[in-house]
Amino acid sequence: GLAFKYGMKAAVFPSQLQDRRESFRRLGLPPVIELHLFGARDVFHPEAAAFMSGVRRLGEACRFIVHFPIMDVETGYLFDAIDDDPDKLTKVLAFTEGIGAAELVMHCCYGFNRDIPKQEARRGFIERVARWNDLAAPKGVRILLENYGFVWLPPGLGAEYAVSPLDHCFPWDMAILAEAVGKLGLGSVGFLLDTAHAVLSANMFNMRQRHGHLAGDVRFGNIYAEDLAQTEYLTAADFVNGFIEYFHVSDACRWRPDDGLDEMDKYLYTEGLPIGRGNVDFAELLGKVRGDETLIMEIDPENGDHGHNVSQYEAVVRLRKIFG
Fold first, then answer.
1. Which pTM does this prediction carry?
2. Is 54 helix (H, G, I), strand (E, B) or coil?
């Protein structure tokens, strides 16, 4: 079988951390926990240090990965790499180092809802990534760049979605980023693939390829002619390549041309599902992996109880059955 390492997501709250540790104990696996930061409620909170020591206390023998806060309904904050905010990153890096985590996940995006050409956005983003690398390297932290997919927003952020030129991080986009990271010698930057985001991006690519009128739909505005020229049909498996070290795993709904557009939202907004609730073939999707990567379950509990996320535990059980 493959020697995947398995992880689960959690917020910084003790109930969730204890639940995840217990799940790993039952699985007989070393605990790997990806902490999803909100912002005002944790890392940017005046008492951030208290959260940090709480995580450390519960985290003996845990390996932590940190996810940079991407949206915060309380403050209306939406992360966008175009905003040069070294102060926020410095705080998050201090938190990451403080709990002994060695990886920080950042999203690929640049210039939400602005009219920026893709090349310009990519240049600007690579400059940001170089800066992140320089801030992270002395702290022994590795920046992991994640594909964002379709950026739908929760209620409270004043919009249903946001669109930037770099959200999809199509396979050819990731190849260009990886080449730039190599050329610039950014030794503290790696890649994480979110499988559900890849499914959503492939869905949208294939819809746009077959239904020309979607060129006028703002949600599809970051799928350019140069993208459509790359391939006729895209699958989530096409996003997998040899330099991805981490995966976020959840089920989603894969669109096929004969599904039509009647239920479009289902194929744009559905992610975070328990394995088996969508129609993703994980043996196929992860068919080209090396086999030593870390698979992090990014699955929402079906009953809404984040303090007792059975769905993530069950996902690991199912994936171990598939992959041995």
1. 0.97
2. helix
